[in-house]
Amino acid sequence: MRPLIYKYLGIVLLLGLFLPNLQAQQQQGLAVGLKLFPSMVYNGNLNYGYGGSGVYVNYRKKVAPKIAIVVGLETSVVGWGSQSLLEIGINNSLWQKDRLGVSVEWLLLQGLAWYQPKPLHVWGSEVGAKAYWKMTKRSDLVLSAGLRYTTNPNYRSYGAISSYIDVPVKVGLVFHKKEQQEIK
Amino acid sequence: MYTIQNRIGFIGVHKINVFIVSLYLCLSSACSYLPNDEINPSNEVVITETRDYIFMRPFDQKETNTGILFYPGGLVDPHVYNQWLSELVLSDPTYTVIVLKMPANLAVLNSNAATMAINDFPYITNWVIAGHSLGGAMACSYVAAFPNSIKGLVLLAAYPAQSVDLTSWQGAVLSIAASEDGLASAEDIEDSKLRLPTSVLINTPNMMPTNLQGKTVFYTINGGNHAYFGHYGPQNNDGEALITREEQQYQVLELMRQFFTNNDWD
Question: I need a surface site. Which of B11, B33, B88, B159 has the fewest CB within 10 A?
Fold first, then answer.
């Protein structure tokens, strides 16, 4: 039997993100969306294919005129199975005009691949360019593409493929409070 | 009055809650079984892994005529079958085994995965599809969708879905159950006879009939359980096995070897 802590780790992580988010929502945006992982490389071998997909939810807090910190959670299905990753990173707004804008975002990823009898540690990093379009005063449509490296080191004990380099494509929505329109 | 609803705008509290619950369900329900530590495939087998499948062939293979496509059970890591499948490969120098990887380890999310492997090995003439549990059910669906691509079907603790009818299929079917299986019950296996080709019951591998086209051979491993078809577990809701994992897998191998030989797939 897997320990009880693993069974409830997912919801604890989610609540840990969700509750502080409610407290600070006035000064930040909430983003939700889908991720697709066209993939280029596994274990250092060039091989194009489909790497999986996932959903993400994160919030971003403005810390400088064009800089926001990003904290969130991704749950996804990839080559080694299902996983949940904590996202922590920085968003830098590069350009904005009328309803359109562009930013870059860098994320560190830490989390777990869900297995029995015990989950395995997964980590990685993701960098991407984002384009956004203001749909309303308080919501944006965001499209993004980038590069992403993830590895599941302990999976080497079971399978041959323990790392991927993907080209994550994301589509999502960002919801703002009135005073925080410019952070994407 | 300043409420949570005000804070999060038009998304709505209930929608966020539904989203979080959905996420959690995804997390908690997609926990797959890893192989047990003792798994140790034969050194005489070359095992190659791609992002889509695990490919096994004898080290000294010069040609291959028979390909065995394997659909893993639901929420089971595909490597849990490497041990006995590598021994199956050694049964005949022309055998090739391809274990298909599934999204989230759920074959129901890609029941047509076999097509890609079949296209990757155009020189293989005899394709047999096998599956454990949910993987077996999806193998049945594949045969129903592409009846002319597959010559044989092997079901391990598995049966076709209610909507799948293979009664008129002219391929050969081997259905292996286990008496202590807590997930695929004897009643489920019995009911599946109505959706599979003509039934033939045997008590030992030696009783395997010849001329198996359009027939289903049923065999029950006494004392076996669901998880012993692979190297994982114990599995939730499974029965307690009365024989060892090695004994159960030896019987599976003997049955499959006899089934393949009697069909002239070598």
Answer: B11
